[in-house]
Amino acid sequence: MEYRTVGRTGVKVSPLVLGTMSFGAEADEAASREMYRAARERGINFFDTADVYSGGVSEEWLGKFSAAERDDVVIASKAFYPVGADVNAQGLSRRHLIQAVEGSLMRLGTDRIDFYFVHAFDEETPIEETLRALDDLQRSGKILYPAVSNWAAWQIATALGISARESLSRFELVEPMYSLVKRQAEVEILPLAQAENLGVISYSPLGGGLLTGKYRAGARPEQGRLVENARYGDRYSRESDVATAERFAAFADDAGASTVTLAVAWAMGQPGVTAPIVAGRNPGQLEASLAALDFGMSPEMRARITALSATPAPATDRAEVLTGKWS
User: Fold this and answer.
1) What are 18's strand-pairing partners?
2) What are the Cα distances from residue 38, in Å, to 60, 64, 279, 283, 285?
3) What pLDDT does 221 receive?
4) What is the pairing mode between strands 113-118 and 74-79?
């Protein structure tokens, strides 16, 4: 396996990350352990979790599964969303981040978290407050690198500027949503990451299940996030998304390839993406995603798949800046 370096950290990771949101939710402990082992057997060394996944069970199980090989794996966790009834058991304040890290360390059974994500943007806490807390956590060795998920490019850029000005540890890894039906990250987040040498692990390469080939005209599966989770259903409810998914499924049929494998391989080959996050409800479901590690996608095939969805509008309203056609 050809490992990739996360930005400027020097840390080498597999080209796929195993996401553990299903651990303790759709997947019981036995299935979760089997998925962990399947990932390790394929050379995956990067695992993504969060304090809110299954009420902390995901962290507990990941810590248990990786205990005997902790120094050989890279673990990322996150904080922001409510983890209790108390009004302060959420957000990105110094108070909550310190408590959240301590809780995650205990559940993971480890002395450090390799990449620690702020899970969303906190409009009530100054960015400086959050960055100073992360800097202190890094200096204490409890986290090794701060990271950021679900922030807009301008918010990330603002944080990088503050970190540089105040000599604080900066974000080294970004986690945006990215798939053939959600390509907004191409506009500013991925270019920012490339310009600032940030690592990128993207989530939902299957578009919440929309790109699995199960969602076609007049057909919907009985199970799946788009059916069972209203948030995911709303996220991928646009007619254009469904149309893209149908074109993609037809392309995969013609190519004689798995839609899941193709979708993951496409995201894995995007310039600027260090590694997409893959997951599954069970080992069998995960296997098609892991198969992307061995799938050789040619530049021509990648271009044909990319053309199946609309290219997002550029960040500037002067499109000629990108096309070179000045007027």
Assistant:
1) 47, 278
2) 19, 16, 11, 8, 12
3) 62
4) parallel
Domains of the chain in start order, with CATH, are: 4-208+261-297 (3.20.20.100)
Spatial separation of the C-alpha atoms in residues 125 and 259, rounded to whole Å: 41
State how far the Cα of 119 lies from the Cα of 202, in Å rounded to an integer: 13
For 116-129, how does the pLDDT look when each residue is reduced to its tens digit (9 = 90+)? 999 999 999 999 99
> What is d(CA 184, CA 300) in angstroms, rounded to the nearest whole number?
22
pLDDT of residue 286: 98
Contact criterion met (CB below 8 Å) for 103 and 52: no
Q: How large is the angle between the packed helices 29-41 and 57-66, nearest 10 degrees?
A: 50
Q: Please calculate the CA angle 98-48-191 and round it to the nearest 5 degrees.
A: 95
Catalytic residues: 53
Closest CA to 155 of 123, 178, 187, 124: 123
pLDDT value at 153 more than 90: yes
Which two structure tokens, joined as six digits, stand for 114? 């390799």
Rounded to whole angstroms, the Cα distance separating 176 from 178 reads 6
Q: Which two tokens stand for residue 119?
A: 């899970």
